[in-house]
Write a structure and sequence with these properties.
There is one protein chain. The chain has 130 residues and is an alpha+beta fold. The protein has a single domain, classed as 3-Layer(aba) Sandwich (Aminopeptidase). 25% of the residues lie in helices and 32% in strands. It contains three helices and six strands, in the order H-E-E-E-H-E-H-E-E. It has a six-stranded mixed sheet with strand order 1-2-3-4-6-5, with helices on both faces.
Length: 130
Amino acid sequence: MAAAVPARPGPWMTWPFLPDELDDLQRRPGATAWILDTGDGEPVGHVQLTPVDDALRIGRLIVDPTMRGQGWGRRILVLALEHARAGGVPRVQLGVLASNTPARRLYESLGFVADTETLDAPIVLMARNV
């Protein structure tokens, strides 16, 4: 459940997450943190999903730098969208570094649209209906 995000997701994120960091992420009200593996138990990506009003916020999406460009980011996003749809969540949103062009392209290819008011900000807000 992750994708090719060749640029770093943010200076506060590292790969791999430490177990206590994941525990901390899951303590946010209603949040879940997922780790995607290759099927052989080798972790390749991580994402956090947090309910926000009537939407699901995708955050802390990161793919192992050695595995980027192989479609893992797309997989993790598709799984997050399926999770939102199954839960009856009407909208999914996320924030992305404006400078992270590869990630923005990935999100756009999955139907996310940038909030035009944030296009000149360091972090662009994007959303799509489920």
